[in-house]
Amino acid sequence: MSATWHIVWDWNGTLLHDIDAVISATNASFAEFGFPPITLERYRELYVVPVPKFYERLMGRLPTDAEWAVMDEAFHRHYWVAAEAAGLTDGAPALLRDWQADGSTQSLLSLAPHDRLVPLVREYGIEQHFLRVDGRTGPSHSSKAAHLVRHMAALEAGGVTPTRTVLIGDAVDDAVAAAHVGARAVLYTGGSHSRSSLESAGVPVVDSLAEAVATARELAE
């Protein structure tokens, strides 16, 4: 494997095992709007990015901008409390360390708010493994593609190119974003989507981060 290969990691549901916090926050916010609670299995069947489309599947219509603002605020109000009990996905620190030790590079791109993301990554003690850490700075209802375009452009000066990059994430939107910039993707089943939903993206789907990195290595050969 060439040392010039690069991984772009997703955060929520990938490096951070926060699906329990997500379900807890989702149901707490649903209760505020009179929606019935949702199971993990049902959530994974319905979840989609951009997130307003997830609510469309629940409501039968897209929320208005005003409704979305209230829903988004409610979810995040509950999420940041529940997420205090979350932790890194099993094996993540060692995988980050080993990929870096092999001479390859990696970065982190998330749709979590940038001002929240950076302190968290630092708190978990993994910041030094990344060339760059980028969170969302714009609206919360966006897809990842435009963010990945900017992320890759910022990495270009360091020799990182999309054609030698693998994005590891937990959502179909991650695969869509990777294809948008000409990168490859590996999707992990431990986050927001069901396996069948992930497989619809037409990219490798794995059940652990160790498998994700092993697959990235295979793609790089």
What this model shows, in words?
- With 221 residues, this protein is α/β, with parallel strands linked by helices.
- Helices cover 48% and strands 15% of the residues.
- It has helices spanning 19-33, 40-46, 52-59, 65-82, 92-101, 114-123, 145-155, 172-181, 195-199, 209-219; strands at 6-9, 16-17, 87-88, 105-113, 133-136, 165-169, 184-188, 205-206.
- The strands form two sheets. Strands 5-4-1-6-7-8 form a six-stranded parallel beta sheet, sandwiched between helices.
- Helix 8 links the parallel strand 6 and strand 7 (184-188).
- Helix 1 (19-33) crosses helix 4 (65-82) and helix 7 (145-155) packs across helix 8 (172-181).
- The termini are close together.
- The mean pLDDT is 94.
Structural class designation: alpha/beta
Q: Mean pLDDT, rounded to whole units?
A: 94
Proportion in β-strands: 5-15%
Low-pLDDT ranges: none
Query: Percent helix among the residues?
Result: 40-55%
Terminal CA distance: 5 Å
- Principal-axis shape equals globular
**How many helical stretches?**
10
| SSE order, one letter for each helix or strand | EEHHHHEHEHEHEHEHEH
Q: What is the C-alpha radius of gyration, as a whole number of Å?
A: 17 Å
Largest sheet: 6 strands, parallel
Strand ordering within the main sheet? 5-4-1-6-7-8
Q: How many extended strands?
A: 8
